């Protein structure tokens, strides 16, 4: 299922875009955000396949939001369609942000459908390499996308991988036969850091670090993880 995020503060346009996507009868999960702040939270929770962004948001410029999204590794190449009534913003969007297309307000239903269908064709024909880690278990090889792994927990000779599923929910898988150090070696090309003798975290998910308590919280989780003295300086540098 593809997740589409509409970022638009005009409720009438929100409803218009939503109805068009529903009428297309595709396998979409549609999110709507009226603000940049909420849009970032949704983007961090789900894997968005297409952004439709109003350039002039009430709380933020849509182009500034797009730049923030582009700074996230998983959205470096994700298609973006801009909705704009300002002609001067169009060229900047193409050159600097690499948006896929733009819709000039007031746009029609057919214009929206054509633009979205073009994005779907693009997604079907291009394959973006997503970094993965391969882990062997009892003669089978399991492959996990690095961007989905939130943290890894050690229980002696058993490890638990906590990761997001396509709907953004946190799930876990048990693995055996690896030490935390050997797992960290496998993850060396990703944004991972050991924060404690029992934990490896994906630093892209750090939501808050409480220095006084030597703990951190990760986006999408409800627990606080400890920061060991050995790892304190490195972890504090990611704040």
UniProtKB/TrEMBL annotation:
InterPro entries: Bact_response_regulator, CheY-like_superfamily, LytTR_DNA-bd_dom, Sig_transdc_resp-reg_receiver. The keyword Phosphoprotein applies. The keyword Phosphoprotein applies. SMART domains: LytTR, REC. Residues 3-120 form the Response regulatory domain. SUPFAM superfamilies: CheY-like. The modification 4-aspartylphosphate is found at residue 54. Keywords: Phosphoprotein. This is LytR/AlgR family response regulator transcription factor.
């Amino acid at each position: 299922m593809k997740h589409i995020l509409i970022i638009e503060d005009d409720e009438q346009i929100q409803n218009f875009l939503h109805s068009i996507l529903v009428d297309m009868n595709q396998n979409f999960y549609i999110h709507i955000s009226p603000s940049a702040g909420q849009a970032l939270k949704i983007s961090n929770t789900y894997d968005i396949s297409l952004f439709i962004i109003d350039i002039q948001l009430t709380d933020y410029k849509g182009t500034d939001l797009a730049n923030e999204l582009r700074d996230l590794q998983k959205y470096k190449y994700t298609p973006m369609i801009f909705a704009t009534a300002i002609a001067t913003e169009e060229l900047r969007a193409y050159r600097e942000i690499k948006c896929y297309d733009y819709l000039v307000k007031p746009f029609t239903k057919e214009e929206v459908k054509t633009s979205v269908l073009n994005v779907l064709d693009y997604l079907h024909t291009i394959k973006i390499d997503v970094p993965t880690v391969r882990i062997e278990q009892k003669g089978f090889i399991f492959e996990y996308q690095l961007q989905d792994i939130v943290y890894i927990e050690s229980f002696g000779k058993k490890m638990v991988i906590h990761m997001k599923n396509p709907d953004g929910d946190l799930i876990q898988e048990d693995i055996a036969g690896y030490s935390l150090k050997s797992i960290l070696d496998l993850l060396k090309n990703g944004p991972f850091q050991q924060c404690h003798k029992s934990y490896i975290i994906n630093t892209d998910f750090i939501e808050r670090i409480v220095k006084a308590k030597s703990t951190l919280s990760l986006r999408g989780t409800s627990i606080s993880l400890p920061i060991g003295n050995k790892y304190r300086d490195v972890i504090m540098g990611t704040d």
